[in-house]
Design goal:
The protein is mainly β. The chain has two domains: 14-119, Jelly Rolls; 135-248, Jelly Rolls (Sandwich). Helices cover 0% and strands 56% of the residues. It has strands at residues 3-6, 13-16, 19-25, 31-35, 41-59, 65-67, 70-72, 78-79, 82-84, 88-93, 99-119, 135-140, 147-151, 159-171, 182-187, 195-197, 207-219, 227-231, 237-248. Strands 3, 4, 5, 6, 7, 8, 9, 10 and 11 form a nine-stranded antiparallel sheet that branches. The chain starts with a strand and ends with a strand.
């Protein structure tokens, strides 16, 4: 169905259609390109028998191309590229770009019929807006051992958004009080976020639980970089660290 866009200079209304292009992705570097000027959402449809990796990217100046991570129409997290043999539809925001393309960056066999559609429809980006916790990680250690929870690098153009953190301190022995707090540190989180835990006396078998649910998820500092939460060596203590997160640009 045609849409109308307004020419702000003259005030005239002009019909707008969804913009699309189609082609066969059957060799390395094969690509399909469509204009998307003034559009908000791009969809990539792949059909056929194929085994390849397809990357979606956008350009402002027609020369430099920027990766656009995509999400499956069926849900789930963002992908830096569409990898494998399964037909389907993947979507993303393309606002601000002049053109978008789907390009084969790794090729094994076959060929897909690829269709790119750019439209004025807004991208319903529940994942990026913090509506879901699609992944969790947890790590536990031995008594008196340091523990590191590592969230693996998520892929090109992507970063972690942390929705909650849970840190448990279990007394595997009778704990005696100390004068300084115990500090849990992080990497790839803004300002190198750290947490102080009490160094108080505790009976054998007791547990000190700390959890924070972030109303606004914490965006990690650098794309495609591992994020860590590190509990130090603490005599008589077993640490468990758990994080909930999702992956997005």
């Amino acid at each position: 169905m045609a849409k109308l866009s307004k020419d702000l200079e003259s005030g005239n209304l002009h019909p707008r259609e969804s913009l699309f292009a189609t082609g066969t992705l059957g060799v390395l570097n094969a690509q399909v390109v469509t204009s998307c000027d003034g559009c908000a959402t791009v969809a990539l449809d792949l059909r056929g028998t194929f085994s390849h990796t397809v990357e979606v990217s956008g350009t402002v100046d027609g020369t430099n191309w920027i990766l656009i991570p995509v999400r499956s129409q069926l849900g789930g997290g963002y992908l830096a590229a569409v990898v494998g043999t399964t037909s389907g539809v993947w979507m993303a925001s393309c606002a601000g770009f002049d053109k978008v393309r789907a390009r084969v960056t790794a090729y094994t066999s076959g060929g897909s019929t690829a269709t790119l559609v750019a439209s004025n429809a807004l991208f319903d980006d529940v994942a990026k807006n913090g509506g879901v916790t699609s992944a969790t990680g947890t790590s536990v250690g031995a008594s008196g051992a340091a523990v590191t929870l590592t969230l693996a690098a998520p892929g090109a153009g992507l970063r972690h958004y942390i929705t909650y953190l849970s840190i448990n301190r279990f007394a595997a022995a009778v704990l005696t009080a100390a004068a300084a707090p115990v500090t849990v540190t992080t990497t790839n989180i803004p300002t190198s976020l750290a947490f102080s835990f009490a160094a108080d006396a505790a009976a054998l078998g007791t547990i000190d639980r700390w959890r924070e649910d972030f109303a606004f998820p914490i965006m990690t500092t650098t794309q495609n970089t591992a994020t860590t939460i590190v509990a130090p060596v603490t005599t008589g203590v077993i640490w468990r660290i758990t994080a909930g997160y999702y992956v997005a640009p």
